[in-house]
């Protein structure tokens, strides 16, 4: 492959998922040649509701410069051969087993996908595309349940930090050990640290994006993963949404997948090896489950059917808001462009038309 061609070639893992598909669309719109790795493991993990073939088909039909590859990232030789053949200028690794609960019932699959799959990609990059920029979609679950130790205050519809040190949210210097992560959080943390190490030890231009609630209209949300997408789907279809603990006042900061893709582009343009960023919607885009119920009901005109389970998920966060200061400092041209109102409206529109 010529240098000119590879300079505009991007490889995306999990290309039929929420972030992967958004990255495919974003870079195709910029004229890049984009290759996607996805074997629809989400359907294996979550059943028919998690199937992403519809998204793969949509991307192939809309973007002539997109190429799909039916590759499982656990297949080491296939990953090595793929990156050797493509020599991409950048790799966005968005493939994952994303569920706390599923990790506990399928621990080998969880670790093999999240940790070993990431190592396969990193080593293939080091051997065959050492100049490539490598962006890894990590998770805020690498902090385990340690954020629950922050002093909180209970408000009518949400929990909120009661410590001025966290007014802007949680920063990248927050501790990652001595807490309960869930097996999912542990496998993602193993990959996160490995991505950093390939940046610091080998000089690969890597970064970890520790996502808050990543969301958008192209999410195949299910009960075990995909908070807003699944919640809106339940409202539109008149299904019952189960609330697990904390009185439904647990808080998440929500970022649209388009804004994630925009930051990835900014990083690829000016990479910083071994970097880590907490990426989420920040305080302005935060909401609790109860507040989300009110928002979607006001849009759809339908009451939210829900039931309460007085037992929170192990390792779950009571309140999590990402401090975006580091991202904004390193990339001052990047900013959140989709408000919480925008996000709800887009997901609702997709739910009623798909």
Structural write-up:
The chain is of the alpha/beta class and 354 residues long. It has a single domain (3-353), classed as NAD(P)-binding Rossmann-like Domain (Rossmann fold, 3-Layer(aba) Sandwich), CATH 3.40.50.720. 41% of the residues lie in helices and 18% in strands. It is built from 13 helices and 15 strands. The chain has helices at 3-6, 18-29, 41-46, 53-62, 76-86, 100-105, 107-128, 182-200, 227-237, 257-269, 289-300, 325-330, 340-353; strands at 9-13, 33-37, 66-69, 90-93, 133-139, 152-154, 159-161, 205-211, 213-215, 241-244, 251-256, 275-279, 286-288, 306-309, 319-320. The strands form 4 sheets. Strands 3-2-1-4-5-8-12 form a 7-stranded parallel sheet, sandwiched between helices. Helix 5 runs parallel beside helix 7, helix 7 (107-128) runs parallel beside helix 8 (182-200) and helix 11 (289-300) packs across helix 13. The chain is globular and about 55 Å long. Mean pLDDT is 94; it is low at 1-5.
Question: Strand tally, please?
Answer: 15
Question: In which order are the strands of the major sheet placed?
Answer: 3-2-1-4-5-8-12
- Span of the ends, CA to CA: 39 Å
Output the radius of gyration: 19 Å
In the CATH hierarchy, what is the architecture at level 2? 3-Layer(aba) Sandwich
| Chain-averaged pLDDT | 94
Count of distinct structural domains = 1
DSSP helical segment count? 13
Q: Which parts are unreliable, with pLDDT below 50 for 5 consecutive residues or more? A: 1-5
**CATH superfamily membership:** NAD(P)-binding Rossmann-like Domain
- Please outline the major beta sheet: 7 strands, parallel
